[in-house]
Amino acid sequence: MNSKALKIVLPLLTGIVFVALWQFAAGRYTPEQLPAPVDVLKAIKELSDNGTLWGHIGISLARFSGAYLLAVTVAIPLGLFLGRFIRCHAAIDPLIQVLRPISPIAWFPLAVLWFGIGNAPAVFIIFLAAFYPVLLTTISAVRGVPEVYIKVAINFGAGSRMTFLRVIVPAAFPGIMVGLHIAVGTAWIHLVAGEMLGAQSGLGFMIVDARNFLRTDQILAGMLLIGVLGLAIYRGMKAFEHAIGRRWGVAS
């Protein structure tokens, strides 16, 4: 069996085993405690038919996309700057290291006071969750560019701007992508947490609302959809990384 077939067959087998174990475990509990896979699929169809599912998915994706892109837009330029200017980094690094360990969820009470109930607190939480991984990995990636690359560019007559754009940024790209991947995961997790805490829409809110009505099947449906969407976002990030990497000659 060739490698392409294995990439399809092995995940498929893993999925079958997972569903089989889930079905076995569901048989040891009541449907209210642990619904079977078929019950969860029926719950997804019910939510889709009554029109609530797609609205919640759309709102969650919009919140996530806006906050994540905002974090990336701020963190990457700042990380590139701090990575190149060591003294500026030394001045601001203690503040970053004080703020970074604070969980984004710990900011939620203040976010509600500052922004009120609704989209803004959830967007703020997602922004914080994505900002620090991208910032720190960008700084590290720029600092890790071999000095010989820069010396060669200068010897060939490249100015500081061209050296930065044509040498430093492409060389740092793989490290930056590590931060973007980490930030996607943490931001997606905190999106759901933010929607559970204060939002009135989205997948996190849908799960909390299902809990209030003791709809365990809908809770698991929401959890399953969160996982599937997370996988889709991850695959999209990998495709983006591969396309940019090929353009800059850092991927095959």
Question: How does the SSE layout of this entry go?
Answer:
Elements: H1 3-26, H2 37-49, H3 52-84, H4 86-99, H5 108-115, H6 119-143, H7 147-155, H8 160-197, H9 203-212, H10 216-247
Helix pairs in contact: 2-10, 3-4, 3-6, 3-8, 3-9, 5-6, 6-8, 7-8, 8-9, 8-10, 9-10
What's a concise summary of this model?
This protein is mainly alpha-helical and 252 residues long. 82% of the residues lie in helices and 0% in strands.
Question: How would you describe what is shown here?
Answer:
The protein has 252 residues and is mainly alpha-helical. It folds into two domains: 1-30; 36-247, Orthogonal Bundle (MetI-like fold). 82% of the residues lie in helices and 0% in strands. The protein has ten helices and no strands. Helix 3 runs parallel beside helix 6 and helix 5 (108-115) crosses helix 6 (119-143). The radius of gyration is 22 Å and the shape is globular.
